[in-house]
Protein 1
Amino acid sequence: MDLSVSTRTEGDRTVVIVAGEIDVYTAPKLREQLIDLVGAGSYHLIVDMESVEFLDSTGLGVLVGGLKRVRAHDGSLRLVCTQERILKIFRITGLTKVFPIHSSVEDALAATD
Amino acid sequence: MATLELQLSPHRSHVRTARLVAGALARQVGLDDIVVDEVKLAVGEVCSRAVRLHEQHAPTTFVVVTFCDQPDLAVSVRDACPVTTAVSADMGALPVATADGAFGPALALAVVAGLVDDVAVEPDPDGSGGTRVMLRWPRPRAS
């Protein structure tokens, strides 16, 4: 599978580092990871997309699903992404208005809103 | 005649193959890197939609992807699944997500409509009862 997901905790936040391609085949793996994290009580997630080489609408759906899950626990899901080719699909679908998108993990960790 | 044709058994792992073929042809016809990425994303979205429909309704039938590189780069994806609602390439409103956040095949077409100027969605002329989605990108003109 061309997708790897790893995590680290920073205080009450969990940074989820995603690398590779998120598409119709690999997206379920990310979905399961997000479900497991929320199930284990991690409600403030930062998804680092800087090593993501491809993202399609299935991947977007998984991220939206993750956002809904954490919000059910008053949590947050922030993205770290500076790659224009990945940001493009967020722009086309209007999801740049839905996800806070940061240019670095440090930035995302510092955000309080 | 078609430059290339892929018959995909409806497994999600094959969508990447179709993307990579699309990207290779897009580079061959001289499209720039940004457009090559758009070709891969658009073809991937259309194939993902078709594969997901086939998983549910036609799991033993191929999704057929045809590529032509003259006069322009044209990609057609044919599926064999009747759709009960009108299939439209209009952006319109985004489809509502299901309870677990999974968007259905209609979002794939919405993304494609936002990426590709020349998209045509019509009933499959080969009479499979499904849909043919045609995507087209002009070849760069020699300067």
Protein 2
Amino acid sequence: MSVPGVTETTEAVARARAGDAEAWGQIYREMGPAIFRFCRRALPTREDAEDATMEIFSKLWEGKLSQYDETRSFSAWLYRVAANHCWDILRRRKIRQDKETEDIDNVPLEHPDPNQLDRLIEQKTSEEVRHALDKLGARARMALVLRYYSDMSYDEIADALGVRRAFVGVVLLRARHELRQALEGKSALAAGGTS
Amino acid sequence: MSEPANPVAPEEPDGTMEHLDEMTCLLYAERQLDRARAQAVSAHAQDCAMCRTLLRALDRESRLLTRAMLEEDEPLPSRLAEFQERARKSFGWIWGLVLGLAATGVYALYTGYVEPLQQRLEQAGFGGTSLLSLLVFQGAFWKGWQSMMTLFEVLAMITVAGFGAVIFRRRLRRGSALALVLAGLCVALALPAPAGATEFHKGETYELAKDQTVHSDLFLTGARARIEGTVDGDVFFFGQSIDISGHIKGDAIVFAQSVRVSGQIDGNIRSATNNLNITGTVAKNVLTFNEVVNLDAAGKIGGSLTAMGQTVSVDGHLGRDLLDMGDETIISGTIDGDVHAKGNSMSIASTAQVGGPIRFEGDHPATVAAGAKLASPVQFTQMKKESQYEKGNYYVWRIIWTAAFVLFGLVLFLLLPKFASEVVNAGERVGAPIGLGVLVFFGVPIAAIIACITVVGIPLGILTLCLWFLVLNCAEIVVGTVVGNWILGKPADTWALIGRMAMGFVIVRIVYTPLAHVHVMGFLIGLGIWIWGMGAIALALYDRLTPVAAQSAMPGPMPPMSLPPNTTVGGIQPA
């Protein structure tokens, strides 16, 4: 798992764990922008993303890095840390919207018109998608960010969001429906995700 | 809702084809379906244009999401760019604070201990250069070290070497960098100045006849020695008794039971003896640790006499000062300089002449016979028997020393974080480090002294003693860290370890300080701390240097390889 353009910093991590300040700087230079973008996508505001990024790296400096298993990908592990941190922020704020309840999850989603969906996707730009993301509920946005920014597996997403693995597909599908409604300018909070 | 059990419904009775549901299509696009289901979806999509379009749309939607998220639409906020710089600076000011406080500790060491001793030695005629060089190097063992650095220059060099290790560790592995710096330091310290030829003699007795001359330094070990001839360099003697009636142009360094000087010594006498009797002439100074020192009426010392022993009797002529820390001081001869004495009693005979002030700190006032010619009356100070622990000053110095040790520990832990952790882990084993500590505490100094006695091993012996002393000072830091770990638990990183070290060291000091008043218990506790800490350091070194034995047990099962994502079978068929 990796984000295109972000290189592994295994050697720097080993030196940073030994207390090398220069290595810390290298890790921050390489991973800081990517982690900020992750937080920017996952959290509602830019200021939240800035704070979260600083808190995540502060956690690393204060000892979190010692929990890293060197046999695994560092960037994957760091994204997990970032995801957990952002999810904790969102849960503490209790900004999950009403539809993110068990009842809402059981409401069946309407099958989309494939041609209409295809046209919608073709017309929308990346910027419009990013604006639409800001309108989504916390869990929906987080699920999309974990899958399409961090390229996490379904198991990792389930672990990060605290849901069953079999439910991850549902979460992603609902998130996509919300995103489509936001792209079409319709309310993203309508239960059932009417088209 | 969960994954559909059967992604493709069978054909309806009326012949219309059932389409794939969106969840199935999404799972297929995300490569989350198993092989059988994926193949079924793929087969259906080849025949169903609508499902094919849906699959394509979902795939494009995934790509759009990925592209939108990965685009760098915003620059990194300046606050985050400054964050790294602030983190760098935070390291910087910490080092500045450490150095500042370390310099304060060094200054406290100098003003409290070194400077008073240096002043005393200057009064005894050791003017000019450093304490370390005067006591150990200057004229005693090596010639040509007159320009030897002062004690603080040595400390400064060690600090610079430490900085070098900090800088090198960014480029080289820490262990080899530190080894490189320390090896360089050891080579610098161990290199003696060219001393020319030296004669060595070992035997029961040694005799240098009157008409014989030794044109170099002379090293003697044996029971008895008699020097009637001339030695152009220094004389070193380790034995039972030595009689110097000839002419020594350098210094006489003597460790013996009895020393008699009736001849001429152009340099100094440095001795640790039972009896020192001078009836001849010593041109410079005498530094001696004796039971009895006697400057006979015919004897003459051109410089100062510094003596620590039981009885000092000056009946001859002393060119400069007398510094005496002993039991009894008897002055019946001539002293051109000052007299500083501390002891039980002082007697000044009628034949005595003292050219400078006389300061005596003792139990009883000095006894001055009528007729004695003194430049000024004796300044007597009653020796106070109060315990050092009753003085407030003692506790202030304890606090200063505690802070200095904590800083010392902080620097060590930052320079050698992994080794520090290993030492602390070794210390927590308690039994093994204490056992090894006994061996190190007693055995190493004995071995170093033996090395010094062999003469050729003097550099190694001195280096070993210096390292032993350094490890001794680290011992309490190690014990403090172990105590800190017991209280706060295992540390997560180096800074947590440093915090535990600081806390534990302070606790050990607070507990130990009142117990130190109880003489035997205080001594035993202090000894126990040193032994434990030194043993932990030795044990960690041993573990590092000893190769780990291969595990005989079968290796455990290999952990399952983590499959990269999206590796399940299936995939999107081209539209």
